[in-house]
Amino acid sequence: MTFGIEPDSPSTAYSYLELRTQLGEHAQVLQRFHEKPNLETARGYYELGPVRYLWNSRMFVRHSETILECIRRYVPAAFERIPRIAHAWDQLEPAPVLRQMYGELPKISIDYGLPEPASRDNRVPAGGPSDGPQLA
Q1: What is the spatial distance between Cα 23 and Cα 61, in angstroms, rounded to a whole number?
Q2: Alpha helices of the chain — where are they, by DSSP H?
Q3: What are phi and psi of 24, to 5 degrees?
Q4: 127: left (phi over 0), alpha (psi -120 to 50) or beta
Q5: Running DSSP on this structure, what letter comes out for residue 24?
Q6: Residue 31: which of 52, 11, 7 has the closest Cα?
Q7: What is the mean pLDDT of the chain?
Q8: pLDDT in tens, 19-60
Q9: In whole angstroms, what is the distance from residue 33 CA to residue 11 CA?
Q10: Strand duo 2-5 + 28-34: pairing
C-alpha cells in the first residue's frame, strides 16, 4: 500500500501513481508508478486529474517479506548482501562490515529500484509469512 497526494500543479520533482480502479471511498488499485516525468508528461497527468494520477508520497506499507522479495527480483546485488548485513548487525563491532557492504550496494534509490519495476510485474506477492524468501 502507498499513499498518494493530490497534485496542485504539474511537477517533474515527484513521481506519479497511475490509478486503475476504485476499491472504496478512500482506496484505489494502483495501475503503475511513473518516476519523475518530463514537464509535458506531468502536464498530461495533471490535466487528467486526481481520479487518474496522484503524486507519490514515498510512504509505503508492506510486509517485510514482500520488500525482500522485491529486492531479490529487482536489485539482486543488494539482496545478496542482506544476510551478511543482518549477521553483522548483531556483532560486537558491526561498523567495518556495514561500511564495506554499504560501499558495495548498488547506487539506486528505492523509488527506481522497487516500486516502479514492481508495478509492471504481476508476480509480486501481496505479502505474508509464506510469500517471501527465507534468509539463512
Answers
A1: 17
A2: 39-48, 64-74, 76-79, 82-89, 95-104, 110-113, 115-119
A3: 165, -170
A4: left
A5: S
A6: 52
A7: 83
A8: 988 887 888 888 888 989 999 999 999 999 998 999 998 887
A9: 15
A10: unpaired
Q: Are 19 and 48 in contact (CB under 8 A)?
A: no
- Grid cell, residue 79, equals 539482496
Among the listed residues 62, 64, 70, the one whose alpha carbon sits nearest the alpha carbon of residue 1: 62
Give the C-alpha distances (Å, rounded to integers) separating 123 from 7, 60, 92, 103, 132.
30, 19, 39, 30, 12
User: 52 burial class (0-12, 13-18, 19+ CB within 10 angstroms)?
Assistant: middle
At 66-83, the pLDDT tens digits run 889 889 999 999 999 989
Which cell is 117 given? 519495476
